[in-house]
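Dear colleagues,

As part of the handover before I leave the project, I'm documenting each prediction I ran so the next person doesn't have to rerun anything. This entry is a single chain, and its sequence is reproduced below.
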Amino acid sequence: MRRILTVILLVGIGLGVCAQTHSDELAYRRNALAMMLVYHPEDEFGGEIQKAFDSLPIPDKYDDHNVGLRIIDNSQIENVKRRDNGYYKATYGHQLTASELKANALHTEQLLNNAEVAKWMVAKWFNLHGKTTDDACFDTQLIQARGQYNATDVDVAVALQTTRGLATLSDAGEELLGQSFVLVNDITYVTAEQEAAAAKTAIGVIGGLFDAFTGGKTGQDLAKTAGAIADSFTGFKVKTHSYLYRLVWNDSVAAIFYTQHYTDHPDPEKLKAFVNDHSTYKMQYVAHEYEFDKKSVLKGKYSRTELVRTICARSMDKNIVALAKQYEDFKVKTPVYKVLTNQRGKIEGYAAKIGMKEGITDGSKFQVVERVLNPKTGKTSYRYIATVKAVKGKVWDNRYNAVLEEADGATLPYTTFQKTAGGEILPGMLLIEGKYKKIEN
C-alpha cells in the first residue's frame, strides 16, 4: 500500500512541475497549505460534498501545497491502530466527545504518515523533477520564489560551506518549510428531512402527553400541523471538524535532507535513499476546530450543487479563521495594499485585501509589522510598526458567492483600516491579527 501511495503522490507532485508564484502586486511569505477531505460514501450527500471540495481552491492567503492526496475515503481505511476502522462520525443529534476527537486527530496523523505526505511536501518544496530516480533531482526555485531569496542565497551546495549560508537555509526552513500545514476536513451534514423528522417526533411526544392530560385530540392536531411546517422547511447545514497538521522541520530533519537526500543533478543513490526513507519526514497534529451554524441562511438562488459548494466553502473558511486565532504559527499575514488619502493628501486609512472570509468584523484589531532580513546572518525577523482596526461599515465581504447574494460589503474592493497607535505605515508592510509573539519591538 505504501508503494502505491508513493507512486500516486509522486504523480501528484508532477516530477517536473515549475515553481509556483502568485501574481499579486505585493509579494509576501504565506504559510503553505494542503487541504484534504474525509469522504463518507455512505452519506446521501457524500458524493456532492466531495465534488464541492474538489472544486474549491486553496484560500488565497496561503500558498497551494497540495501533493496529490486530496480525498480520504472513510470506507477504505486500513492498518490504523484503533478499536475499529474509519472515523468517529458527527451525525445529527450526536456531537463528538473529547476522546473521539482525540482519536480522530491521532488516527489522521497516522494516516498521513503512512502515506508519507510529509516527504512529498518536502519534495514539492524542492521541486523534485524527472521521470525516474535515475534522472530526477531537486532545485530551490520554489523556495527562492516564495521566500524572495536570490538564487545564491538558497544554493544548497554553496550554503553548506558557509555559516551565513547555513543561516539562510535555516531561515528558509523556519519561515517556509516549518510553516507548511495540512488541513483535514471531516464534513457531515444536517438536512431539512432530519430536522423535520426530529421535530415531528418531539412534537408527537408532546402532543401525546398533552392529550393524556386533557383527554382531547388537540395534541394530535398540533403534531400534524407542526409536521407539515417542518416538512416544508428547506435547508442543508454542515458539521465541519477540521484537523490541522504541521510538517516537522527542524535542524536534525534538515541535516538529513541536505546531506543524504538533496541533489541538484541526477544522483540515483540519493534519490533512492530519499524515496526509501520511511521515518525521517513526519506530519504532527497541532489543533482542531469545529464549525456548525444552526442559523445559517443563504440569500441567493442556488442550484443544489452550488448550495453544497457554498456552504462547505464557508464552513471550512470559518474553521481556518478559528485555527489561525488558536494556533500562533497558522496566523495569516497579509500586506497593506495601499495608503488611502483624500484630495488634500491627508491619510484617511489603509487598505488590505482581506475581509469577512478571514473573519474580519467591525473593529477587528491587527498589528502592522515590517519583515526585516539581516544581510549578515540571512535570518528574518518581524518589527512592530503600528496597530490598526477595521473601520465600521468598510469591511469587505469576500466570502464565497457573497456577490451573488448581493451581501453588504460584497462590492468593496478591500477592507479599510484606521491606525490606533504606532508609526508610519507603508504599502507592503504586513497585517497580523491579534498579538504575534515573533515580533521584535
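Residues 125 and 143 are 6 Å apart (CA to CA). Confidence is low (pLDDT under 50) at residues 1-24, 195-215, 217-234.

All the best with the project,
I.
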